[in-house]
Amino acid sequence: MDTLQETLQENPALIGAAVGITAVTTAATVWIEKTIFRRGENRRAAGKRCAHTDLAALMAALVAGMETAHVSGLLSSRQDAHCPHDCEDCGR
Known about the structure:
Elements: H1 4-10, H2 13-45, H3 53-71
């Protein structure tokens, strides 16, 4: 199996792709966070109590569901992904 350094030397475009993907996902995250915050502030200005709470609870539930699916192996492409820390001696 090649080391990371050898792989990057053979495929230098991977570095550019990684930088590009990082930049796009960072920009998307900032935009989404600002949009969510602006929505909550608009609701607060309109007099709604706990204006940020309902959306925050929804996002927390979505993340918890995704994490549960990941840990249980539902989101993994590996057939043996039953152990979240990929060890051989966890007894599962």
